[in-house]
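ok new one. same drill as before - structure tokens go in, u give me an amino acid for every spot. 205 of them this time. try not to just spam alanines like last time pls lmao
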């Protein structure tokens, strides 16, 4: 196979160029014609070129990029780096998954433990909410005695505190439900990935 440098040198020979001992000869295509010179022809400044040096060394130089080309190249480079980071993160997560579990049953058991802990906390929040709701009914009964006069400061403070407690526990219960759903989703994804990594997904089909 003839190298690009050899072809370039043959072209120089065909053009009858003689390279001075310490000079460079630059060639480029201008309107379909080969243009060479030392110093380089001005037309070669914005075009791809070949630089011929002493000893028959040839170097190909790309044409300068336009602003649009530079932007496209930078965007592609940024996209490539993002993909590389994603691939590295996925590889790290895969190693952690395989290091953490030796069987699917272990993974399922970890999921069940995580959900059980969340449900235990949710049960506590539920009990506190029920207590606050019961207290609210009692406080509402007391308010009946003050329909036509201001509430005592202590009673008003108790009502305000109890309302905040009800709101807090309701929010806690909603959060626990979201947490349980997130755990189920995460473990489902980990389970599927684990089966893929261990080659058991195909066997399951």
């Amino acid at each position: 196979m003839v190298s690009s440098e050899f072809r370039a040198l043959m072209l120089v020979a065909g053009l009858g160029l003689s390279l001075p001992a310490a000079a460079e000869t630059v060639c480029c295509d201008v309107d379909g014609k080969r243009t060479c010179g030392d110093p380089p022809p001005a037309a070669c400044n914005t075009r791809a070129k070949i630089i011929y040096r002493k000893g028959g060394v040839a170097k190909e130089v790309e044409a300068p990029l336009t602003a649009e080309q530079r932007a496209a190249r930078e965007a592609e480079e940024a996209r490539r780096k993002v993909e590389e980071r994603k691939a590295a993160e996925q590889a790290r997560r895969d190693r952690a998954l395989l290091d953490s579990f030796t069987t699917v049953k272990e993974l399922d058991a970890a999921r069940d433990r995580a959900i059980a802990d969340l449900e235990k906390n949710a049960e506590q929040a539920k009990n506190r909410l029920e207590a606050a709701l019961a207290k609210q009914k009692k406080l509402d009964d007391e308010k009946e005695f003050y329909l036509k006069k201001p509430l005592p400061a202590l009673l008003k403070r108790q009502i305000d505190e109890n309302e905040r407690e009800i709101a807090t526990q309701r929010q806690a219960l909603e959060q626990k439900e979201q947490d349980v759903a997130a755990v189920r989703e995460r473990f489902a994804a980990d389970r599927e990935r684990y089966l893929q990594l261990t080659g058991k997904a195909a066997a399951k089909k």
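The radius of gyration is 38 Å. and btw Residues 1-22 have pLDDT under 50 and may be disordered.
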